[in-house]
Amino acid sequence: MKMAMSDRPLASLGILSSAVYGYRRNASRLTWMRYSAIKDGTIIVRFVIAFNGTDTQVREVGDELWMPTRGTLERSTSPLYTTYAWLRYATQTAPHNLAGALIKCDDDAFVVIPELVLQLRLMPFVQDPEAMTYFGRFFWTAYDAAQYTHIASTFSPSEASYHRWSMECAPARRRNCTGPFPFATGSLQGLSQALARSLASSELAIEHVRAVRLANLAHRKTPVYEDAWMGFALVGLLPPNASRTIVAIGMPVNSFFDSYGFEMNNFSMVVHWKGGKWASLLLARMRAARAYVHMHRCESNTSLRCGDICHATGWAASYPRGCRAGHCSPGRPWMWCALHVGNDTCANVHREKISLAETWRLGGAEPVGFR
């Protein structure tokens, strides 16, 4: 007997971390992990940490999952191994495999859980547990599978970016390219449980991850980015299934903040800092983000709008042939949706910069209580 979505966790959130980043985990525990939706089990949160050694068993200790992926020895590829290991584990192990969606996040990001819950409740998997849903803040890229690297990421597949991909993937370059395709940026990317199961059990994906390890890329300067790989895997590594439709849902761009500085607005969902991550400042920033949310947050009037991905963007998975007849029919295997924030609910929609002095003022004291 299947459980109703109301009886299951809405999502299980796996936060990629490293053994040496205990201070990042503690900063999350002291701030955004105290939201009521985590306490009541609506959202499950686990830190996913790679470890070395001969032990092949996943260790679950409190809110930490220790994955035997040898990640600390292979930093350029560890995020890919660990993300895929998290999907394989979570799709087979309760309570994670009961959740509507599986999400990967970074340990230096602040997640506004009430806004995340609000947006997740609009997604297809809430009504249909078998819905194939892929969501996050999307960019576009192409992928060289032989070199395990993405090519020319952009915000949208414009004519200029098509030209750039075409130049990079021309036969003369002898690159084995797939794309362009959308991928959700790594600060927060999610798959419905059904889509995660398909990817986690795909022999093509399993073999590709194994090939990455055998390629001995540990000392390569350019990492194998797990977020671009995820988009490639959904386009090129799932088993054929004519009845499968993947629904890609772009979450509101203006609810994501990913910069070296510190900016938020009153319907922020994810704040990720590219710099300034030493222990005292990161904790102050997370406390400041929590205080800002407590003072300013309003519920965004978000709605879901969908359309055929080819007609919306000119995209075709069979690049570089483009959007030709047969590749852009209504029955193609991807649909494009976006979550839109209503303008009538949140007046302060502009980005508000939070200075270093304001960060210490808001975040230097002990954490305040959440709503």
Number of helices: 11
Order of helices and strands: EHHEEEHEEHEEHEHHHEEEEHEHEEH
| Low-confidence parts | 311-331, 366-371
Number-wise, the strands total 16
**How much helical structure, as a percent, in the residues?**
25-40%
Biggest β-sheet description: 11 strands, mixed
Distance between the termini: 36 Å
Find the structural class using helix and strand composition.
Answer: alpha/beta
Oligomer: single chain
What proportion strand?
25-35%
Radius of gyration: 20 Å
Overall body shape: globular
The chain-level mean pLDDT equals 82
Task: Provide keyphrases for this structure.
371 residues, disordered C terminus, three-stranded mixed beta sheet, 11 helices, globular, eleven-stranded mixed beta sheet, alpha/beta
Question: What do these coordinates show?
Answer:
With 371 residues, the protein is an alpha/beta fold. It has a domain at 109-363. It has helices spanning 22-30, 36-39, 78-90, 113-120, 159-168, 193-200, 203-214, 226-236, 279-296, 309-313, 356-363, and strands at residues 11-17, 43-50, 59-61, 64-67, 101-106, 109-111, 132-144, 149-154, 177-192, 246-250, 256-259, 263-264, 270-273, 302-308, 334-341, 352-353. Helix 3 packs across helix 6 (193-200).
